[in-house]
């Protein structure tokens, strides 16, 4: 973006300060005063030590100060110093001549002031023409830097006084500075693709009535960028922003497009708020795709689940805008999980649910129960936000109990193994290892026939204790109060 105007004026100050003093050495007033100063010095002999000599040296010092003001074109200060200089400080034999010289100096100064104003007026008018010409042809904001330096230099040459001409010249220079700043913003926004913000910079130039109009309204309108009408509803805005989103690799470009629309959309109709929500969803999908490509399936699936929750209310034709993108990422992430156990790929056009079911069937056939749990867990990360409850809840619990039964069986704990295997046989579901649990139950029976009796006896004992507890809880509550007939006094210290 454009540097601040104050920073650029710093260089203009330097440019003015380094102008050589010889540029002012030919002024008539400087020449006239210098000659009279030499006369004052010559009127006093070098050997004179009287007060006349001291007074002459003092007035010569004042003349040198006035000469310095003239060389710096500080005409007002020089004029005031000459007018306020008392006549008695001038050597008596030169006082008559000083009256004539001072009048001539004042006339020279007035002429220099008039010449300086005329020169400033011409320079300011030339600046206005140059600013207009460059603004209409510039391609980038750095082209305005030389003009900004000229603005700074001309502001330092502002004539003294508050007359109408001085104020007029000041307004022209200020108008040039404001025009350059707005045009620089326009070019900077245009270069970055922000057409609406670029046009807003031009509109601000039109609407600001306090600045001198360097450019005409037609000039400004000719620079306006053609922009499409901003969508007035969220669905149209998203359809436009996500038009190029075809594969997960398109997510970075789609995210950038949404951010551009946020910068230019009308915030009064709720479109910006919806686009910001979509921006969050796209960021999550982008993170999921990057995690998938890096082999971090768990992080990918968690990002997918978060994206699903954030945009569930945004749909087009009944489907989420980027539903197919999520499906693609989910396919890829789940296939990574499956490939850790079996080499089975998703068929072209196969739904996610079909691929998941087929993969679990293959894992079940190979008795890769740990793999089944891993795949189910990852799938639930994405499926649960849609289903509202665990998709594989009881089936996964049954597999976990089956594996626990195996561990108990290996540890020669028949009662615990029987308990786990029998739980598995009570659960229904395509992927529940019922046959494997039955086989495990038969092995335990054959190896520990007494375990079945002990197991059934333990179960009966638990049922009996549970029934007694339920009977106690079912009895009505008896309330005893003092002195109630037929009831023992629960509070004997209170009396009957």
Quick synopsis:
With 496 residues, this protein is mostly helical. The chain has 20 helices and two strands. Among the domains are: 5-118, no CATH class; 137-223; 401-475, no CATH class.
The SS-based structural class is mainly alpha
- In N-to-C order, the SSE pattern is HHHHHHHHHHHHHEEHHHHHHH
Count of DSSP-assigned helices: 20
Side by side, the strands of the main sheet go 1-2
Could you describe the 3D structure shown?
The protein has 496 residues and is an all-alpha fold. Among the domains are: 5-118, no CATH class; 137-223; 401-475, no CATH class. Helix content is 69%, strand content 1%. The chain contains 20 helices and 2 strands. Strand 1 (315-316) and strand 2 form a beta hairpin.
Features:
496 residues, mainly alpha, two-stranded antiparallel sheet, 20 helices, rod-shaped
